[in-house]
Every structure is written in structure tokens, then in C-alpha cells.
Amino acid sequence: MDTKQLKLMTLDEAVSRIKDGMVLGIGTGSTIELLVPEIGKLVNDKGYKLTGVCTSERTEAQAKALHIPIIHVNDATHIDLAIDGADEIDPELNLIKGGGAALFREKVIDEMAAEFVVLADETKLVDYLGQTFKLPVEVDCFNWRLVMKHIEGHIEGEVTRRMTADGEPLVTDNGNYILDVHLTQKVDPYDFHEFLIHLTGVLETGYFLDLATEAIVGTQLGVKVLSRY
């Protein structure tokens, strides 16, 4: 099975976590794009009273097109469940996220949620964070090059500003740039996050540490559910 088929395998498990009346954090990325129509079916076909809080403008547009009620995060008093994808998942369910350039909004919503469930295919499982995927860091456009130099002076590896397919700098929904940090050796994610988050100009890092409560993973042998508890 290809990766899309593996992602599709996770949807039934994900939908089973959604209960009528929930305030639902809805993530960003290719897996979540497959999930949103299933959420739409709960609302439109089964009459669920759900309220969505979206992590990106792209997800919000998709959800609204399917008549899923959406509110802004500042109008949410709580989030019962957040469902999102991940670019890497380590054995402790720590994550790297941000491949879809929505890491700041994702972290805001995932931190608010009482439960945070991750959907992924088995290629996202790693021994340590940074093993296969670059670490995204969202930075202010004003001093992005200075931030890049600080990071390059701190690690063994390469830092690049993310570009669009048109060759222009990618700009996030928050009006910022993304720096992708290619780590050539294992680093402590807690220590590296602390270094990065205190650099002037860094909004947030793609480390999602101690946040996920469960991971639903599509594998060649079926769906595997990993729990922090």
C-alpha cells in the first residue's frame, strides 16, 4: 500500500474519537484533508453538533465548504479533542510538525485540547526527532537571516528558508517565514527548543513535546494505536 492508503486506514479510528457536541481542533496537512470530509458527514448526515477550530486558513476553507461550523480560537473557551498529522513521531509520542507551515497555530490549538490525537502513516515513526525530517522554525521576516546565523552557529547542520514552488519565500498565515533546520546528528529536542524559542524573532518551533495523547498509525499490517498513557 502507498502512503495515501495508509493514511486512509486511520480515518475510522479517528472518527470514532469524535463525539456529538465536541469542540474539535482540526489540523492541517494531507492526512487531515482526508479526514475533514468525514467530519462533514458527521455534521451533515448524522446531525452531530460539532464546532471546529482550525489550524490554518486552508483547513478552515475546506471545513466551511462542507458546512462544518467553525469558530476562531479566541472565541473558544475549550477544545475537547484536537486531531492533526505529524512529520515525525518518536517512541515517546513527541513530534516534529510544520511541513504544512501551520506549526504556530497547530501548537496553540493542540495545547488547548484536552486530548490530542495524531494521524500518520508508518513512515513517520522514527527513533529520534530530526532523523528523517527537517525541523521547521517560524520566524519574523524582519530578522530571519540573523536568526538563521544564530542557529547555524549552534548546530551541526544546514538551515534554509523555505520557498514556494514559484521560487518565492513561503509566507505563513501569520505573515512569517519558515526556516528548515537539517540536523545532521541527534540533538536533545527539549534543549534545542529552549535555545530556539529564546532567539529574538522566533515565533515557534516545530517540536511538539509532551502534547500528543495518542497516535493512530496506518501500517502495512493494519492500524496501530500508540498511547502516551
TrEMBL record:
Q: Which residues form the active site?
A: E106 (proton acceptor)
Give, as in the UniProt entry, the pathway in which the protein acts.
Carbohydrate degradation; pentose phosphate pathway; D-ribose 5-phosphate from D-ribulose 5-phosphate (non-oxidative stage): step 1/1
> Under which main EC class is this enzyme filed?
isomerase
Q: What is its EC number?
A: 5.3.1.6
UniProt-listed Pfam families: Rib_5-P_isom_A
Query: Domain of life of the organism in this record?
Result: Bacteria
Single biological process term from Gene Ontology: pentose-phosphate shunt, non-oxidative branch
For this UniProt record, the keywords arranged alphabetically read as follows:
Isomerase
The record lists substrate as bound by T28, G29, S30, T31, D84, G85, A86, D87, K97, G98, G99, G100, K124
Catalytic reaction list: aldehydo-D-ribose 5-phosphate = D-ribulose 5-phosphate
Q: To which protein family does this belong?
A: Belongs to the ribose 5-phosphate isomerase family.
Task: Give the multimer and partner information.
Answer: Homodimer.
So what does this one do? Catalyzes the reversible conversion of ribose-5-phosphate to ribulose 5-phosphate.
The protein's name is Ribose-5-phosphate isomerase A
Q: Which organism is it from?
A: Staphylococcus rostri
